[in-house]
């Protein structure tokens, strides 16, 4: 998450959220490499999962590489934010932010795989989530002391910064890790990150409505592909789980 926030600092919200869709692809590929998932292209569920993952990846690349004509669908709430943000980004090294975002996606993918293994030998998922957040807080705290030595940077007031910290800590971290751990335990490591595709839809909409980010033809087409690939993958995953349940019932009989 630290890598993601630093990558977000050098890019935009609509650009950064696209990289969350690399997480399910990376998770799926790593799960195949470590034999935590089976490919089985000859079966309909295996083909659906593989094709769905490719469509999601293609939609992500389409949003990243093709912009198209911008669509001004509604007036923005914060009108000047987009212009100021674009000026700031032009003075920064966007490649550096992209590298940080890719590193964040790979780290998240590794976490899903490790969490799947941990929950098999240590099934107390909420205690595991608490320890994850605690150790992550210590790690980021030490990193923050090294990077930001100015005391003013650590002062909190009754402003948007405090609200952001409370929201990020309570929902974007604590609740997110608990729900992800539960889903990993029930459905496997490659299932929860596939829902990251929906974050592109919400971020693109609210970024345009509130912050003035452009909605382009490329972003709309990419979102359609991402959501289509997501549900194709979930269809194949559901068929796999249903087949596994049937096999267990037959073996029990």
Automatic annotation (TrEMBL):
One GO molecular-function entry: transmembrane transporter activity
Gene3D superfamilies: 1.10.3730.20
Family that this chain belongs to: Belongs to the drug/metabolite transporter (DMT) superfamily. Plant drug/metabolite exporter (P-DME) (TC 2.A.7.4) family.
Entry keyword annotation includes Membrane: yes
Alphabetical list of InterPro entries matching this protein: EamA_dom (IPR000620), EmrE-like (IPR037185), WAT1-related (IPR030184)
Residue ranges occupied by any EamA domain in the UniProt entry: 97-234
Organism: Rhynchospora pubera
Subcellular location: Membrane
Highest taxon listed in the record's lineage: Eukaryota
Keyword Signal: no
UniProt keywords, alphabetically: Membrane, Transmembrane, Transmembrane helix
Transmembrane parts of this sequence: 12-34, 46-66, 95-114, 126-148, 160-179, 191-211, 217-235
Record's bilayer topology term: Multi-pass membrane protein
The name this protein goes by in its record: WAT1-related protein
Cross-referenced SUPFAM superfamilies: Multidrug resistance efflux transporter EmrE (SSF103481)
Record's GO cellular component terms: membrane
């Amino acid at each position: 998450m630290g890598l993601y926030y630093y990558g977000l600092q050098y890019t935009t919200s609509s650009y950064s959220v696209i990289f969350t869709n690399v997480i399910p692809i990376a998770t799926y590929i790593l799960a195949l490499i470590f034999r935590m998932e089976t490919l089985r292209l000859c079966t309909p569920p295996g083909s659906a999962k593989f094709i769905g993952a490719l469509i999601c990846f293609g939609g992500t690349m389409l949003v990243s590489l093709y912009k198209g004509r911008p669509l001004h669908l509604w007036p923005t709430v914060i009108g000047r934010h987009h212009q100021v943000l674009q000026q700031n980004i032009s003075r920064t090294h966007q490649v550096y932010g992209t590298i940080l975002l890719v590193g964040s996606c790979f780290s998240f993918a590794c976490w899903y795989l490790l969490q799947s293994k941990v929950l098999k030998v240590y099934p107390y998922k909420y205690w595991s989530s608490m320890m994850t957040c605690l150790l992550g807080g210590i790690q980021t705290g030490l990193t923050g002391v090294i990077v930001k030595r100015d005391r003013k940077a650590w002062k909190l007031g009754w402003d948007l910064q405090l609200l952001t910290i409370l929201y990020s800590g309570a929902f974007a971290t604590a609740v997110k890790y608990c729900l992800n751990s539960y889903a990993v335990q029930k459905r496997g490591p490659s299932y929860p990150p596939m829902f990251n595709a929906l974050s592109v839809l919400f971020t693109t909409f609210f970024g345009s409505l509130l912050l003035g980010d452009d909605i382009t033809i490329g972003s709309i087409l990419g979102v359609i592909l991402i959501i289509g690939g997501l549900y194709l993958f979930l269809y194949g995953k559901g068929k796999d789980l249903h087949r596994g349940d049937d096999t267990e019932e037959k073996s029990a009989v």
